[in-house]
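> call design_seq(struct)
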């Protein structure tokens, strides 16, 4: 045997030498210096002969039948080892190879990473394609740089790679990694450059199939250069991932805040209900307290005076002294009796008050528990980048109704009757969409179907069930446990461990089987505390997890045999009928009820979470049995109810008991006379007691002289502060209850005060008020501060006891020694000491890349704390970068002066009243101060690096103007639940991306304009502010003015909303917009309103009286269709509306029938910006005939150019009776009309229109018009201008005037001094200029050229020459005819020149006498010849008839001659 092994060994060594080109004989004799050996494909079944190679540094063995690693003990120089494609099952035999740097054991059957601890120089380790399930055994490999574990069965990374900080390359492809959370463990590998989870050579990991896989990896591992063999080193790739994740974090931060806000709303409703309930007890308590203190005052006065008072309700006169003494004694006895009765009623009502408070806190806990899952659900969504999604259902969702019906169908009333339960109400259903678990479920489900060879869909559906998961009845369902199931499924560690070794996922199909064990356990636990089943509210609310289950091959469990996979190897599940659990007879439901045990947890998919409430048979014994039953019907008073009717009767009886005290006159102020009257003395120093109870005092003047005063009662007055008692140095007792005291500031110097009652006031700031008492009441023994709206009521008692060490009683309760010690311990923990800083700080330089919305300080201190054992060096404080002091009950921030490198700090849920102590932390980037008592943001001007600031739930009343001006990196600001009224301080926070300011006191629209300059703002939450109710269409209003917003009040902004906002608010010029532009709302200072090119459609300046000083308005280039709100501006003189779409001064009503689509749009949007619609003549006439009242009587200048106006009547310009200058150029006007009432109009501009001629109504009345612009129209005629008697300038350029006769019609305007006619066809005839100059003697400017004397002389010369030519033309063109008699031809032509007299002889003060034109009246010419002589020549009828007859005969003779020829 030994010989054969030696022979085999020799053969193996020979093969080894042969394959590596070595001589076997030489190697066998002398050994070999070879440093590298390789063996491929058989021939080397085991590792032998390596002792012959002393210098071996590299060994490669591939595709051999090697089953174990051995024979390497002598390979001390080995640095690289390949043993691949073999049958190795264990890692062993490498302990001596301590210089090994590269180890390749891929393609084997290794199931565990082990025995590598001594290979500390190892840099490369390949274990791909093995059967490894866990990453382990690598903790000593500090130099490992390349690790390949691809193609194994690894399902989790965990923290096993944390020690391998030098790791640069990691391949985990082809495994079973499913969780994004698991991948975040790789963030602790700072040098990782190359990561493969989805290498193309291997199967993909399930996690790679999830949405946003690459984004998640690149965000968490920013130093990666390659991912899944792809180059990801480009900067743009990393920035894209960062941006995507930032958006996700912002989105979920917004949603979580919305959930918290909804919870706060619910709690606020509960608080309101509590206040309503407490109203009656509080009123009763105040009533009895007032009566009690009044009686106590009377008793003190009775005892002090030694004689009866005359103020009691007694009609008999007082007898002698003895009788008076007896009556005084009886009176005192009656007062004491009534005081006892009052105390009893006070005790009763105080008890009711406490009962309501206790029930309120119970309901608060229930509400918080109900909402408690929503925030973790959203955080889970964020951490999984949406691959686990939770959806809350409504009645509109089919799946919600299915779950609802499933719960009702699985509820058996008979089985719950023993617990007093009559029904079940579903409160909430949440659908769980877990992509990871669903992929697993579908994969396993398909495998099971393939294995069973089931292809019938009906058979498959029968194997799928919706069942209830059974939680451990003895353990309350923990939030963490439930989340673990929903995220990771029913892992082996999560399955129920039942008796007798049963291990499986337990599910049932009956609500009773799921819930009854829980109810019974709770009953047993609280058996001693329960008065009756009806009084127990412990099991009323519950939660059910519904899972989708593949039962597969299922069999009934065998009795007395443990339920385990080993006992049922061939099945998927085991079931047990209900009757096996309950032997007694039940209803028929029990025969259909089963309990299942499913062995494979991947086949159980959690799908729905159902929150429910049982309805029980509860007898309401009193108004306070449950909070849901204590609100009386709306409008019904307590006195009308039945519950307190008897108690109120008792109250009345007590109040009416003898003695009845007559009410005293209430004091409004205090003077010497009043003090002496009350004290029954005239010496100030003798006054020891002073009772001012039950008055209306708000100030305590003239008390400084009462140096001996020891007792002072000022209860039931109107005090808001107590600064008037500071000089009463001997005061020992002070009762200031039932006032309105809001602060103790000024309350000082009362060093002898022993008893102080401040109950029933308005004190809020715990820290400030305790500081005052601690400093100025050092001898205080008893203190009552009940019934004040304290900001931190939970820790109030400990805070007061710990600070006021002399106290013996607080709120009427004795302070025990144990309580005093606890208070001292509590106070010691409220101070920021060196130990405090070390316990709650971190020194991490960078914020961890985590998908979380929590403050960085909280995250860092949870990951890594310095701790109390941190080694202190000289500059230890400079290492602190994060500080988390949430919930430490701090009253002030101290000892941060040296924390110069502090970047992230959180001080939430403390008692801070100011922000002092942060000035030196100039490197702060994040600061959280939620849930404190801070009333003002101050002391942060130097924190210029701040990027996130959160101050929710404080007492902020405003923001200082320049608070944020220097914060150039501020991205997120959260100021929810404060009392802020203005956002003006945020105008320069240009870098702001998120703004949360819900539940404040922002009321006016102008505050939104303060945010218009924040172009980076994408998330805004203003829910719960007054503006939401004050501003109609608030949401659309904000969306319109903040166009960059992506989400408002927790709801994403959709495109239809944006369009609706534009339709509703687009083009509205409002007072808020004006205020926003000019920076203030003092509109009385305004004189000019300039708002051009802003798409304005309407003007709504309210209140209009604030704009009464506006005189100039420029709204050019907008979309106005009417004057809109401008008509109400009383003093506007100049109005410019060029380039709009003006149709009328007032909006016109459109007819409702036969509307075009364009008209319908105009009807829906009155200011749509479309041009004016033409009106019929009938409509125009009706409009013109209306006697409309004048408007805008201050308006003098109006610009309406380029508005598309085609009808001047519809404009209603007649109503502008004081208009002097009207500009209508560039419109579609064809007729000048509707201007009759403009009697003071001086200039009219209608250039570039469509005017052809003037109708009779154009200038029907005498006008004051001085200038008329008619250029670029279509004028051919110039008639009907005779009414323009004062016109001085007329511009007619670029029209269609062809006949010089039209120009001659201008002589009816003798006042004309300037005229333009260039661009008309008539200008082609050179004579028009001379004619105009000659006929218009007052003309001074023609076509832009001045007229001088030479021009006028030339015109007269040319005109006389023209007349001469006409005369000669008349004689030469008289026809000759043979038919005419000789005497006619020889007789001289009678001509007579008659001066024309139809022109006025006087053209006005500026005109000279005009030369008379010539008219020829006795020249006889044939018809048709008159045109040769011009229009001034006419013929008498007699002459024309003779001449015409001769001319016709002559023509006839000529025609006959031509025919003959």
């Amino acid at each position: 045997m030994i010989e054969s092994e030696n022979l085999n060994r020799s053969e193996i060594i020979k093969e080894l030498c042969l394959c590596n080109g070595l001589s076997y004989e030489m190697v066998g004799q002398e050994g070999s210096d070879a440093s590298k050996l390789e063996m491929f494909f058989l021939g080397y079944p085991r590792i032998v002969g390596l002792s012959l190679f002393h210098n071996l540094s590299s060994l490669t063995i591939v595709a051999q039948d090697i089953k174990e690693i051995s024979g390497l003990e002598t390979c001390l120089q080995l640095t690289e080892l390949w043993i691949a494609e073999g049958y190795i099952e264990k890692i062993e035999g490498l302990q001596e190879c301590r210089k090994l740097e590269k180890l390749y054991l891929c393609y084997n059957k290794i199931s565990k990473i082990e025995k590598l601890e001594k290979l500390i120089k190892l840099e490369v380790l390949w274990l791909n394609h093995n059967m490894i399930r866990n990453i382990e055994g690598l903790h000593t490999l500090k130099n490992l740089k390349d690790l390949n574990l691809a193609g194994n069965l690894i399902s989790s990374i965990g923290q096993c790679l944390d020690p391998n900080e030098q790791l640069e390359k990691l391949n985990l492809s082809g495994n079973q990694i499913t969780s994004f959370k698991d991948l975040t463990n790789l963030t602790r590998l700072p040098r990782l450059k190359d990561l493969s989870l989805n290498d193309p050579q291997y199967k993909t990991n399930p996690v790679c199939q999830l949405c946003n896989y690459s984004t998640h990896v690149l965000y968490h591992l920013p130093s990666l250069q390659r991912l899944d063999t792809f180059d990801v080193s480009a900067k743009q790739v990393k920035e894209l991932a960062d941006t995507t994740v930032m958006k996700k974090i912002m989105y979920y931060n917004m949603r979580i805040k919305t959930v918290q806000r909804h919870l706060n709303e619910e709690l606020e409703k509960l608080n309101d209900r509590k206040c309503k309930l407490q109203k009656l007890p509080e009123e009763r308590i105040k009533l009895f307290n007032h009566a009690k203190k009044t009686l106590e005052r009377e008793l003190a006065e009775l005892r002090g005076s030694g004689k009866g008072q005359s103020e009691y309700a007694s009609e008999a006169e007082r007898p002698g002294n003895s009788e008076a003494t007896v009556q005084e004694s009886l009176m005192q006895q009656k007062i004491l009796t009534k005081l006892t009765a009052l105390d009893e009623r006070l005790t009763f009502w105080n008890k009711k008050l406490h009962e309501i408070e206790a029930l309120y806190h119970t309901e608060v806990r229930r509400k918080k528990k109900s909402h408690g899952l929503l925030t973790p659900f959203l955080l889970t969504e964020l951490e999984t980048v949406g691959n686990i999604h939770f959806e809350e259902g409504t009645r509109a969702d089919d799946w919600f109704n299915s779950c609802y019906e499933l719960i009702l169908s699985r509820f058996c009333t008979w089985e719950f009757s023993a617990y007093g339960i009559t029904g079940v109400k579903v409160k909430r259903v949440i659908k769980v969409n877990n992509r990871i678990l669903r992929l697993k479920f579908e994969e396993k489900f398909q495998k099971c179907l393939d294995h069973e060879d089931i292809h019938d869909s009906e058979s498959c559906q029968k194997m799928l069930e919706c069942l209830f998961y059974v939680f451990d009845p003895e353990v309350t369902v923990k939030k963490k446990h439930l989340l673990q199931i929903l995220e990771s499924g029913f892992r082996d560690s999560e399955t129920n461990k039942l008796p007798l070794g049963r291990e499986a996922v337990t599910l049932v199909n009956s609500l009773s089987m799921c819930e009854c064990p829980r109810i019974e356990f709770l009953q047993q636990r609280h058996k001693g505390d329960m008065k009756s089943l009806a009084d127990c509210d412990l099991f009323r609310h519950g939660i059910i997890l519904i899972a989708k289950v593949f039962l597969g091959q299922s069999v009934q469990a065998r009795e007395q045999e443990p339920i385990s996979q080993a006992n049922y190897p061939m099945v998927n599940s085991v079931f047990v009928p209900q009757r096996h659990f309950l032997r007694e007879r039940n209803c028929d439901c029990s025969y259909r009820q089963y309990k299942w045990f499913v062995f494979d947890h991947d086949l159980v998919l959690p799908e729905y979470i159902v929150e429910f409430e049982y309805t029980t048979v509860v007898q309401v014994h009193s108004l306070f049995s449950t909070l849901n039953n204590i609100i009386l019907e709306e409008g019904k008073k307590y006195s009308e109810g039945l519950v307190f009717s008897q108690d109120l009767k008792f109250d009345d009886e007590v109040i009416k008991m003898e003695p009845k005290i007559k009410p005293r006159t209430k004091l409004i102020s205090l003077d010497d006379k009043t003090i002496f009257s009350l004290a029954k003395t005239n010496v100030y120093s003798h006054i020891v007691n002073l009772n001012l109870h039950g008055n209306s005092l708000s100030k305590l003047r003239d008390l400084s002289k009462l140096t001996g005063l020891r007792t002072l009662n000022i209860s039931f007055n109107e005090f808001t502060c107590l600064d008037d008692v500071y000089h009463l140095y001997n005061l020992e007792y002070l009762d200031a209850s039932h006032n309105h005291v809001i602060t103790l500031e000024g309350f000082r110097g009362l060093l002898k005060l022993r008893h102080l009652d401040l109950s029933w006031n308005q004190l809020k700031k715990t820290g400030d008020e305790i500081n005052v008492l601690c400093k100025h009441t050092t001898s205080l023994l008893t203190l009552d501060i009940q019934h004040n709206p304290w900001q931190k009521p939970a820790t109030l008692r400990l805070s007061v006891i710990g600070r006021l060490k002399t106290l013996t009683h607080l709120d009427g309760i004795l302070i025990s020694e144990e309580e005093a010690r606890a208070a001292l311990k509590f106070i010691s923990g409220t101070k920021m000491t060196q130990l405090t800083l070390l316990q709650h700080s971190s020194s991490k330089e960078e914020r961890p890349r985590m998908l979380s919305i929590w403050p960085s300080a909280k995250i860092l201190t949870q990951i890594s704390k310095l701790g109390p054992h941190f080694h202190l060096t000289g500059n230890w404080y400079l290492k602190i970068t994060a500080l988390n002091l949430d919930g430490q009950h701090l009253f002030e921030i101290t000892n941060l002066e040296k924390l110069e490198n502090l970047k992230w700090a959180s001080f939430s849920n403390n008692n801070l009243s100011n922000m002092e102590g942060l000035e030196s932390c100039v490197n702060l980037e994040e600061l959280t101060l939620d849930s404190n008592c801070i009333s003002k943001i101050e002391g942060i001007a130097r924190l210029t690096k701040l990027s996130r600031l959160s101050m929710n739930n404080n007492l902020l009343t405003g923001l200082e103007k320049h608070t944020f001006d220097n914060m150039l990196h501020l991205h997120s600001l959260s100021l929810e639940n404060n009392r802020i009224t203005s956002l003006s301080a945020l105008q320069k926070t240009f870098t702001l991306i998120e703004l949360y300011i819900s539940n404040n006191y922002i009321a006016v629209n102008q505050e939104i304009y303060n945010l218009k300059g924040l172009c980076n703002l994408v998330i805004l939450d203003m829910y719960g502010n007054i503006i939401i109710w004050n501003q109609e269409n608030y949401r659309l209003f904000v969306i319109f003015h903040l166009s960059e917003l992506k989400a408002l009040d927790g709801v994403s902004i959709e495109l239809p909303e944006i369009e609706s906002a534009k339709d509703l608010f687009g083009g509205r010029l409002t007072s808020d917009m004006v205020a926003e532009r000019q920076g203030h709302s003092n509109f009385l200072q305004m004189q000019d309103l300039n708002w051009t090119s802003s798409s304005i459609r309407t003007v709504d300046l309210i209140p209009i009286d604030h704009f009464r000083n506006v005189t100039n308005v420029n709204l050019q280039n907008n979309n106005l269709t009417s004057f809109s709100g401008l008509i109400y501006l009383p003093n506007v003189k100049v109005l410019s509306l060029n380039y709009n779409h003006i149709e009328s001064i007032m909006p016109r009503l459109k007819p409702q029938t036969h509307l075009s689509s364009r008209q319908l749009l105009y009807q829906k949007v009155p200011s749509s910006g479309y041009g004016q619609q033409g009106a019929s003549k009938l409509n125009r006439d009706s409009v013109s005939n209306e006697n409309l009242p004048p408007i805008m009587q201050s308006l003098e200048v109006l610009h309406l150019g380029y508005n598309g106006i085609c009808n001047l009547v519809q404009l209603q310009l007649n109503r502008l009776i004081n208009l002097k200058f009207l500009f209508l150029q560039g419109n579609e006007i064809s007729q000048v009309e509707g201007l009759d009432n403009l009697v003071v109009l001086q200039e009219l501009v209608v250039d570039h229109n469509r005017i052809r001629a003037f109708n009779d109504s154009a200038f029907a009345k005498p006008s004051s018009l001085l200038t008329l612009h008619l250029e670029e129209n279509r004028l051919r005629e110039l008639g009907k201008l005779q009414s323009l008697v004062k016109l001085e300038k007329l511009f007619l350029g670029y029209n269609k005037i062809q006949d010089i006769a039209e120009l001659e019609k201008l002589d009816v305007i003798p006042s004309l001094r300037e005229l333009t006619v260039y661009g008309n066809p008539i200008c082609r005839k050179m004579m028009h200029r001379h004619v105009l100059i000659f006929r218009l003697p007052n003309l001074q400017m023609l076509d832009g050229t001045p007229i001088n004397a030479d021009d006028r002389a030339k015109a007269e010369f040319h005109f006389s020459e023209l007349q001469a030519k006409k005369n000669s033309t008349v004689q030469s063109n008289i026809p000759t005819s043979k038919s005419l008699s000789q005497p006619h031809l020889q007789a001289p032509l009678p001509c007579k020149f008659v001066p024309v007299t139809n022109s006025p002889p006087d053209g006005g003060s500026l005109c000279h006498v005009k030369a008379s034109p010539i008219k020829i009246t006795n020249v006889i010419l044939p018809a048709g010849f008159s045109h040769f002589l011009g229009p001034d020549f006419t013929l008498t009828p007699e002459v024309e008839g003779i001449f015409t007859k001769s001319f016709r005969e002559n023509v006839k003779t000529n025609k006959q001659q031509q025919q003959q020829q």
